[in-house]
Amino acid sequence: MHTLIRCIIYTSITSLAFCQTLDIETLERLVIENNPQLLARAKKIDIQQGQLDQSRKLPNPVLGFESGAGVDPETSVMISQSIQLGGKRKHKIKLSELDLTKALLEYEKLKQEKLTMAFQSFVNILHFQEVKSLQHDRISVSEALLKAVSKKVEAGKLSPAEISRAKIQHFQKQMKLKKIDSAIEREWISISALSGDKQSTFDYSQGGFRQISKISPSYSLDNSPAIQLAELSIEIQRSTIKSAKVETIPNLDLGAGLKQSDVPGNTFQIGFSVPLPIFNQNQGNIKSAISGLDEKELELKFVESQLKSELEKIQKELDLLYSEAATLKEEIIPEAQTAYTIISDGYLNGRFTYLDVVDAQKMWFLSRSQYLDALKEYHHNIFELNRITGSNNQTTFKERTNHE
User: Fold this and answer.
1) Homologous superfamily of 61-402 in CATH?
2) pTM recorded for the entire structure
């Protein structure tokens, strides 16, 4: 009994050591924590935060010292301070705050893009795993058919050429299995690149691939990262216009100090200087900023139009894929399986030809393959829909996984 328990424990540990299963939550964490482009974009947030902190600092005062030589030497010390007028500092801080918000939004947008790519590769692996299982079924069926043909040839009921045909089909199915394995390896390479790993430590994906549901028509673009960025760009441009306009207001430099000479006593000095905005009133920058606002508003309209069109197309595609998958699962596949069973049994009794069996087999497996393709495309479109609307890319898939 103890030996049996030790064997079970050893087998479990060995399986864990050599078989690493990836789920969608783990994939999401790996991409967020390790994707090189996301890490670089996170540094941009730190940069903008530093620039915001710097924008809040006041300009340093200037200390001046002069000392003369000769018959009547003078020594003067003066301290001066530049005072920004017209709310320049306030506008500079506002622009820095908006730039920080933009960096955060750009990070979120890039994160959703990378997660969508990773999730779609994850779905591809789930799809290939299902296709591989289906291919094993094909091989098993072809082996059974090969045995049946061999018996009929031995009994003199079929030409020996039928065995060659059955063997060729069997070999072709085995070759396709190798191509499926190669395709799975390529998807693991894609996931490794997205998650920042040189080589993936996982070799199996687990998720609710077969669990789909009819989508809700309540999807909107209110939280779309692309639209939020376009709207923020307009706000930044408006602040840029205000900042350009207040630049026409000159700064005031105030100074105070002491002057000492051979004459007994010190002389207290106070002064100020103001640039006269005669030749340069920042007209060019103001005009450029106003034109920039028009450009950003047009870009927002384009983004909204493009995303609305994409949203409508994806929703229609999802409805079609859901209907297709349901029809294949509930009607076509059962009918194709029944037809294959009847024809293959009839073949053994001489009522159908070998070609009839091959055609029925092809129809049965083709419908199953179409079902898997429809599921894959459904999940791809769900993740794409979540990306453009700013939804959590893996929530619905996780819910389907939990109910699987």
Assistant:
1) Outer membrane efflux proteins (OEP) (1.20.1600.10)
2) 0.83
